[in-house]
Specification:
CATH class of the largest domain: Alpha Beta
CATH superfamily of the largest domain: FAD-linked oxidase, cap domain/gating helix
Helix content: 25-40%
Distance between the termini: 44 Å
Number of helices: 11
Strand content: 25-35%
Shape: elongated
Largest sheet: 7 strands, antiparallel
Low-confidence stretches: 66-70
Radius of gyration: 22 Å
Structural class: alpha+beta
């Protein structure tokens, strides 16, 4: 693309968005993109996509920076959704919430909590992660043990395609459309669940094979937990939760009769020590990956591991690096490991 065409695209956008267009260098991506644009509505995203299509400039949506990398590249325009963070709840008891791409997952949780509801699944980076960003990368998070991947809990997505066409994507097509990365999400309807009565639990293990064995045992029983996760010893110590491997999670209180004995058997069979209720609640309070709005986002390495390989992965070396790991178990039998350099937690 020639400089004249760059200027034509940016001038057209400045006519529409004014000072909400920030020309490059943006400082995001390598090499730098052309500009960052901040729309305020779905209609503005349509106009942005129409201009970008006319000048053959790719658009790249930005989340909150919790992913390790961005797709920003030369000759692209970045779209920041900070000004699109609205949400809508149904008037009835239907299990969904509708949110714009700039809404953080934690803000959705806080608003749903007032109705005794919660998201079926939300990321461990919820204090920073946005709806649009997490949709773009999909993922496993809090609640994935019962409800699976995020994309499996998106009931519909309102998207603007390259060139400006608007399209409503239904539940059955969401995952394939997201994987293609075609277009920008301007709102999404996410599955919710009854919440407020969840019971946290936890157990400490001394060896990786015991922790992995307990996870496999629980998964094999089909015990109806909502969430199941763990921390390795480095992460446990870094977050002042004790020593050793820490397995923790939560289940709805009404399932206690079907859950408690299974948990006790799994812990005992694998030499695990069940945590007192107060310690289990404290571990549950630390379920988020260590990100906070007031601190730079740590660059976590994401590794998807089959449950059958978990003991080997946890028992392996770290190439001399001092890393801490947090794992989340999904309904699919996969474990998402987030590995963090300890110096980033200091």
């Amino acid at each position: 693309m020639t400089d004249a065409r760059y200027d034509g695209a940016l001038s057209a956008l400045e006519d529409i968005f004014g000072d909400r267009v920030k020309r490059g260098p943006t400082g995001i991506g390598e090499p730098a993109a052309l500009a960052i644009v901040s729309p305020t509505s779905a209609g503005e995203v349509e106009r942005l996509a129409e201009v970008a299509g006319r000048f053959f400039v790719p658009l790249v949506g930005l989340g909150a920076g919790t992913a390790r990398e961005t797709d920003a590249r030369e000759e692209s325009i970045l779209v920041r959704f900070d000004l699109m963070s609205g949400m809508r709840l149904p008037d009835s008891d239907e299990p969904w919430v509708e949110a714009e791409p700039g809404a953080t997952l934690l803000s959705l949780e806080n608003n749903l909590e007032t109705r005794g509801l919660g998201l079926a699944v939300y990321p461990t980076s919820a204090p920073r992660a946005t709806v649009g960003g997490w949709l773009a990368m999909d993922g496993i998070g809090v609640g994935s043990y019962e409800y699976g991947w995020l994309s499996e809990n998106v009931l519909s997505a309102d998207m603007v395609l390259p060139g400006g066409e608007r399209r409503m994507v239904g539940e059955e097509d969401v995952r394939s459309v997201l994987e293609q990365g075609a277009g920008l999400t301007v709102s999404a309807r996410l599955r919710t669940r009854r919440a407020g009565g969840d019971v946290p639990f936890g157990a400490a293990f001394g060896a990786p094979e015991d922790l992995a064995g307990a996870v496999a045992d629980l998964f094999g029983t089909g015990v109806p937990l909502w969430h199941l996760a763990f921390l390795d010893p480095e992460m446990t110590r870094a977050r002042s939760l004790g020593e050793g491997f820490l397995l923790f999670g939560a289940y709805p209180a009404e399932r206690a009769a079907a859950v408690e004995e299974v948990l006790a058997d799994a812990f005992g069979a694998r030499r695990g020590r069940a945590l007192p209720a107060a310690d289990a609640h404290r571990a549950w309070g630390e379920r988020f990956f260590p990100v906070a709005p007031s601190r730079p986002t740590p660059a976590a390495e994401r590794v998807l591991v089959p449950l059958t390989d978990l003991a080997e992965v946890l028992g392996g070396g770290r190439d001399g690096r001092r890393t801490a790991a947090q794992g989340t178990v999904a309904q699919s039998g996969e474990v998402l490991l987030l590995n963090l350099d300890l110096c980033e937690m200091a």
